[in-house]
Design brief:
Elements: H1 5-18, E1 22-28, E2 38-43, H2 47-61, E3 70-72, E4 79-83, E5 87-92, H3 94-100, H4 102-105, E6 110-111
Parallel strand pairs: 2-5
Antiparallel strand pairs: 1-2, 1-6, 3-4, 4-5
Helix pairs in contact: 1-2
Length: 121
């Protein structure tokens, strides 16, 4: 039986924690936008780590129900976007994340308690 959208997003959180992603934030945006049900935002310490986080998700997250629809920014590695349809993952370098500040932009979205979230205020 396939995972539901929230279980899929939480699986992604666990995979990012395995690879020591920084400041993981899961936002439930489905009630605010048709883009996706969840945004998952995290940081890597350098370009090598952001690419490793992306690779780890791509290798371990896909199943028959959720396929990677699009990947952007992998070569530059300062902001990598992975679109799984219901879940969009944003992997940032800290300075790029600070500049775009998606948590503020999507501030009306509710954070999902995963035990690893940064404060969304």
């Amino acid at each position: 039986m396939p995972l539901d959208a929230k279980e899929f997003a939480l699986k992604a959180v666990g995979l990012l924690k395995d690879k020591k992603a920084q400041d993981i934030c899961l936002l439930e945006i489905g009630r605010l936008s048709l883009i996706a049900d969840y945004f998952l935002i995290c940081s890597g310490l350098n370009k090598v780590q952001t690419q490793a986080l992306s690779d780890h998700l791509q290798e371990n997250l896909q199943d028959d129900h959720y396929k990677l629809l699009r990947r952007e920014g992998y070569e530059e590695a300062s902001w990598i976007l992975l679109d799984f349809g219901t879940l969009v993952v944003h992997i940032f370098l800290p300075e790029t994340r600070s500049f775009y500040n998606l948590e503020r932009l999507w501030g009306n979205a509710g954070g999902v308690d995963t035990g690893c979230l940064t404060t969304l205020n």
